[in-house]
Write a structure and sequence with these properties.
A: 414 residues; Porin; 6 helices; B: 331 residues; alpha+beta; 8-stranded mixed beta sheet; two-stranded antiparallel ribbon; 19% strand
């Protein structure tokens, strides 16, 4: 009897406990789950970061990464100054629809803890341009107190490393038109004033202490230049930064007229050709770039050393130090095999080769300096915003962390 | 001794009872073909997602519940036959009991409410910068549409892909806003007195006719038929917009949202359909929750939006061949 009572009691307790969950239909089961959730409802929360990041995107963050000019509004910089001056920090402001949408502008201020600094300002005259043309004004002041100099020529020694200050102010007007899709033609002209002085790189002598200013053209001799020229460019890359197919071929000719000392007038011709060979549906790319700079002195004139082509550093011959070689002429090539590692990261193995050349008669592919390595390219929407390259060559190992694309085209041609 | 015997009996009852309640796999109303009547949903607040933060979160993290190393987590949001039920996420339109007719397939989410032509369209918002550029308009009946265009040099690319893909996704069972191809001349658009132009800074200013002109300078134009755009009909009053849905977890303020999204069979299937249609931007930010009221019942319906990057279109340019491919880590 006791057992029967216990059983009945237990059944009642269990039944009561399960009553809420006992359902007779699937519909009831789902409805009960929904009723359970009603007791647990709370407002959706949005991360405070979402609004901030979305505003950046709406202001053109992605387009800015592709173009290298950043999004509209306030900007923060970690690069963009001459190499070798220390880590850059800076800020800027960009608008693309000023004065009833007739003008775009961008102003930046940047500096390093090594007391290098730079101010620049760009005005884009949209009202003067058409759909297929552009006119812009670019002004820049940059002070770089620890520019490296190892002496002239391809045989300069690592042991002769010295530093100098390079301070320049330039104002240039650029204008051009797209004659047909990807083919641009234009003119450029402006003013450049240059000051060189003692360098401040710790542990290395100032350039004038080990090189005779008389043998280094332009050292400690300030002057002003009027410069003007023309450019032509054919660009059929798929995207400007982190391209995977197509190519870019460009030439620029500029005349520098020494307005002050009348000793450093010259012409310079620059040629760049880069092409991208995709395969495996574009997941892998062989990228090739060949570039050369040739200088032509006017009668009795010289090319000042700070305007000579420079080789070495993060953007050309990566296994060699920044500005390792200076001379009147230069030729270099980069070959990269790039592959898509995962969303946001491309990797690459690369070979660099190049040399500076004192005489045009010696322009050839003999006696090149070589280097090679591996690189990591961080991307957003296809555009490279940061890269880390590790390179090794005859002068040792270098690694670099920069905020640009290795093949970034630096001329203002569009 | 009697006490022990009673205890054992009680334990037996508990085990049997619990076992019975868990063992019931089928109910008289199985298999359901439609979700049971929804619970009224009120007091929902819109919330946004960030494309960039989603990208970082998914590249460097693993949001949601993932399959274990061994085995898989079965799909949920299904009936006892494993089929997705008709409801606010999905509707079996083509395949379960009947096939859509050719006309219905072509009609897609609807062809009854194109923007009216008996008056000018009022431009309410012009957005020339950032993502999803377009013009929000109201036709003479007050219905709202988002106009999206082709990039210059690629007439019909994004708009054509949008029309084709939206019909596919609709036929596959997803909720898709009505979309119409429209051709119009400049005079069809007038700036609303309350209109806004979105600046390059992401702010707004009073809309003027020249803002519309400047926007239209950026888009492709058909030399014979005028400006071509896809007009996406805003499903209900804009106040019902709740932002995109996340592809994992559930909406915490929606009582009808009871299955983690990463386990929903309809959303898992979306992965396959998106791969098939080369929908390279099938991501959370390209979805939309709307508060719908039908038969006096307010509830959240979940939409797919923005098909501009499907098929061969990359939205603002032709799609690159590598887009929508799997990642590869070997050189």
């Amino acid at each position: 009897m006791k057992t029967t009572i216990c059983l009945a009691f237990a059944w009642m307790v269990v039944g009561a406990a399960n009553a809420q969950s006992r359902v007779t239909t699937r519909t009831e089961q789902i409805q009960q789950t929904r009723q359970d959730k009603i007791a647990r409802l709370w407002p959706e929360r949005e991360s405070p970061l979402v609004d901030t990041v979305n505003k950046l995107v709406e202001r053109g963050l992605y387009e800015g990464i592709e173009s290298g000019k950043g999004s509209s509004g306030w900007q923060v910089f970690f690069g963009g100054m001459r190499s070798g001056q220390g880590q850059t920090f800076g800020f800027g402001y960009k608008r693309s629809d000023m004065w009833r949408d007739t003008t775009g502008m961008r102003a930046t201020a940047r500096g390093t803890f090594q007391q290098a600094y730079m101010l620049d300002y760009e005005l884009d005259f949209k009202s003067l341009a058409t759909e297929r043309s552009f006119v812009n004004l670019y002004a820049k002041y940059e002070n770089s107190p620890q520019m490296d100099y190892y002496g002239p020529g391809p045989d300069s020694s690592e042991d002769d490393r010295s530093s100098y200050r390079l301070e320049d102010l330039s104002i240039d007007l650029h204008g051009g038109a797209e004659l047909f899709r990807g083919f641009h033609l234009g003119l450029t002209g402006g003013w450049l004033t240059v000051h060189t002085g003692p360098g401040s790189r710790s542990g290395f002598p100032s350039t004038e202490e080990i090189f005779d200013p008389e043998t280094v053209p332009g050292l400690m001799r300030d002057t002003d230049f009027l410069r003007f020229g023309a450019f032509v460019q054919y660009d059929h890359r798929d995207i400007p930064s982190g391209a995977k197919r197509g190519g870019l071929y460009a030439a620029r000719f500029r005349q520098y007229n020494d307005q002050d000392l009348k000793q450093f007038s010259f012409r310079q011709a620059e040629f760049v050709a880069e092409h991208y060979f995709p395969y495996y549906n574009g997941m892998r790319v062989v990228a090739v770039r060949v570039a050369t700079v040739l200088s032509f002195e006017s009668e009795g004139q010289q090319v000042p050393f700070y305007l000579q082509p420079k080789l070495g550093g993060n953007n050309d011959l990566r296994s060699f130090a920044q500005y390792r070689f200076y001379d009147d002429h230069m030729i270099y090539a980069n070959l990269e095999h790039r592959w898509h590692a995962f969303t946001g990261l491309d990797m690459a193995v690369f070979i660099d080769a190049g040399k500076v050349i004192p005489s045009k008669a010696d322009v050839d592919f003999g006696d090149l300096r070589y280097g090679g390595g591996i690189g990591f390219r961080f991307k957003i929407r296809g555009g490279v915003f940061m890269r880390i390259d590790l390179a090794v060559g005859s002068e040792g190992f270098r690694w670099m962390w920069t905020f640009n694309d290795i093949f970034k085209f630096r001329w203002r041609t569009t | 001794m009697s006490f022990i015997r009673s205890g054992v009996a009680g334990l037996l009852v508990w085990v049997l009872s619990a076992g019975m309640s868990q063992a019931q796999k089928f109910y008289p109303d199985d298999p359901l073909t439609e979700e049971p009547k929804l619970v009224p949903t009120t007091d929902l607040e819109p919330r946004d997602l960030s494309d960039l933060l989603e990208l970082l979160s998914n590249v460097f993290g693993s949001p949601g519940e993932r399959h274990p190393d061994v085995g898989v987590i079965p799909a949920e949001g299904v009936n006892t036959l494993g089929e997705v039920m008709d409801g606010p996420w999905y509707v079996n339109r083509h395949g379960r009991s009947q096939r859509m007719t050719r006309e219905a397939l072509m009609r897609g989410p609807g062809d009854d409410h194109p923007p009216t032509r008996d008056g000018a369209w009022e431009a309410l918002t012009v957005k020339p910068h950032g993502t999803r550029t377009g013009i929000l308009i109201a036709d003479s009946s007050g219905a709202r549409y988002m106009l999206r265009f082709d990039p210059k040099g690629h007439l019909e690319m994004a708009t054509g892909a949008t029309m084709v893909a939206s019909r596919f996704f609709y036929a596959l069972g997803y909720h898709v806003p009505e979309k119409y191809i429209v051709y119009f001349e400049r005079e069809q658009l007038v700036a609303s007195d309350l209109g806004e132009d979105v600046t390059s800074m992401g702010g707004t200013r009073d809309l003027r006719e020249e803002h519309i002109d400047r926007f239209l300078e950026q888009v492709a134009i058909d030399p014979e038929r005028g400006y071509r755009a896809v007009a996406s009909r805003i499903p209900v009053a804009w106040e019902g917009y709740l932002g995109p849905y996340q592809v994992f977890g559930t909406r915490s303020d929606d009582p009808n949202d009871i299955v983690s999204h990463e386990h929903r069979r309809d959303l898992r299937g979306l992965f396959v359909f998106s791969a098939w249609l080369n929908h390279a931007y099938a991501r959370a930010v390209n979805t939309m929750d709307m508060l719908i009221v039908e038969d006096d019942l307010p509830f959240v319906r979940h939409y797919l939006i923005d098909f501009t990057a499907t098929l061969g279109s990359g939205g603002t340019r032709p799609k690159k061949v590598w887009e929508a491919w799997r990642d590869a880590t070997i050189p």
